[in-house]
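Collaborator request, handled under Task 6.
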Amino acid sequence: MLIKGLQKLTLLDYPGQIACTVFTAGCNMRCPFCHNGGLALGEGGEEISVYELLAFLDSRRGRLTGVCISGGEPTLHRDLPLLLREIKSLGFAVKLDTNGTNPEMLESLMGDGLVDYVAMDIKNSPENYHLTAGLDGEAQSHLFEKLRTSAELLMKGRVDFEFRTTLVRELHSKSDILSIGKWLSGDEKYFLQTYRDEGDLLVGGFTSYNKEETEGLLAALREYIPNAQIR
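Structure tokens returned to the collaborator:
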């Protein structure tokens, strides 16, 4: 597994846990607003061996309670289950950040008790997903079936989870938000996140919705997902 970053302490990435965040390299999407552009391309960052990571975690037992595995896209790495098994053996809760494109691995991780919390990014409405994910239209149908399967697995409630969408003015309309709501209608946790230009973008030039506009989109989404919130 290629690990290209470690945030040694976070109170935000893993709800309810004092955690660290591990960043894996490489992603199968090319979201133009991605704030981890270097990681998505497998570039930049300081490589950390699995041995170094586990040694760090061992030294933090009793001080940290959780580990967030992010990226990039962690499920691209076939040895992810082995890493998570080691982390769980040290007594940490595990959160996985994923784009949902590997439902087979997601189901296996949940079935084996290797994840305690999953955050799945919802990039956009079904009809505009490929545009926001930076993929061509030919990939849309195959891609979306995998996303739909992952979402359905999570909504069965086997582990705690959330869906989240980063709002970008140029990529998300009210009709997109309504379409997402119809797709994922239910009482799950769902967060709208405000886009911020944090410097390591694949493509620049995007802007954010203001507070009032975001609240209007939230109100529209809540018609279908009553527990939706702004983060």
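The cover message to the collaborator said: "The longest helix spans residues 140-155. The beta strands are 3-10, 19-24, 66-70, 93-98, 117-121, 160-167, 190-194, 229-230. Please let us know whether this matches your experimental observations."
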